[in-house]
Amino acid sequence: MMMTRHFMRILPIAACLSVSLTLGVALWPAAALAQPSRAEAMQALAGVEWTLETDAITALGDGAEQTLMAIADDDSLLNVYRIRALMALKLFQTSDVADYLESRLAVWSNDALSRRTMESFSAGFAQTYPQRVASALTPYLANGNPHLRITAARALRSLNTAQARVAVNAYLSDRAQSWEIEALQNE
């Protein structure tokens, strides 16, 4: 008898769950559904011959940029996933993503992450924040790493600002007859 009463209390809940799952209705708040799962994002970033596919990344839905930022920041992941997450962030042209990419330029100790951050920042925000991109990337023209200098120069050269033109011209004049000039011209 006691078991029957307990079962009778659970039965309406179980029936409600069954109906809601059958109809595809979630019982938890919509905010929990807003951000794609890490597994979904990792699947969109996976593959041996991966290329950035806009449809696959935007299909992740609302909050995808937050998930991609978390992946890029996760030191426990292989850098290939972190780099791909950074590359995908250029598709999300929001001020939050711009702030994130700009802040990460100074933080990364890994040159590959720094280069991809520069590329995503300039590709994603050259039209909306050209001065901001130029200001953030100009100091990298004097960096000790030639690969970072070349990446910054390429990004700055694509901007249509006086600051970027002056910075790239100064960089080029300092490196006459350098392999960096060839690398910049052979992109």
From TrEMBL:
Keyword Signal in record: yes
Q: Which InterPro entries match?
A: ARM-like, ARM-type_fold
Keyword Signal applies: yes
Return the SUPFAM superfamilies for the record: ARM repeat (SSF48371)
Q: Where is the signal peptide?
A: 1-34
What UniProt keywords apply to this chain's record, in alphabetical order?
A: Signal
Its name, as the record gives it, is: HEAT repeat domain-containing protein
- Source organism per UniProt: Magnetofaba australis IT-1
